[in-house]
Write a structure and sequence with these properties.
143 residues, 7 helices, 59% helix
Length: 143
């Protein structure tokens, strides 16, 4: 029976697309390397998990060659990685606009006071308050 299955597998490999042989060989070699490690129960490391996640995204028949773990496990690893990435991406303390140095803010205010007609026109777009105009000793122009 094993001989018949081996012959059918060889026939499928010979008649099938050559592009499927490369990922299949990679998958089988990775599993062999994992099983050759000296432990009773092979443990998947970070690189092993990344390999299977990468392979599952690029090869449709990856489930057929996976013998060491269940395909659901690989999908769970991918979801955990996705969740970890977005938790890292949206961590606290980094929201909003980054702070501006006091020197830069003072320079912008000085330039705005020196040239009140530059930039956006109109009262609602003016970045300089009337109090700042009065402090500078200028009168506000009517708009």
């Amino acid at each position: 029976m094993h001989l018949v299955l081996a012959l059918l597998g060889a026939l499928r490999a010979a008649l099938g697309a050559r592009t499927d042989l490369v990922p299949e060989n990679l998958a089988l070699r990775q599993q062999l390397a994992l099983l050759r490690r000296r432990s009773k129960r092979p443990r998947f490391g970070r690189l092993d998990r990344l390999f299977w996640i990468w392979l599952s995204q690029r090869w449709a028949r990856w489930r057929e060659t996976l013998n060491v773990v269940r395909p659901e496990t690989v999908i769970r690893w991918h979801r955990q990685g996705f969740r970890a990435f977005w938790n890292w991406k949206s961590r606290r303390g980094r929201t909003g606009r980054p702070p501006v140095d006091c020197e830069v803010a003072k320079l912008v205010r000085t330039m705005a006071l020196a040239n009140p007609l530059a930039g956006a026109t109109g009262k609602r777009h003016c970045s300089v308050s009337p109090a700042e105009f009065e402090r500078a000793g200028r009168s506000r122009q009517p708009s």
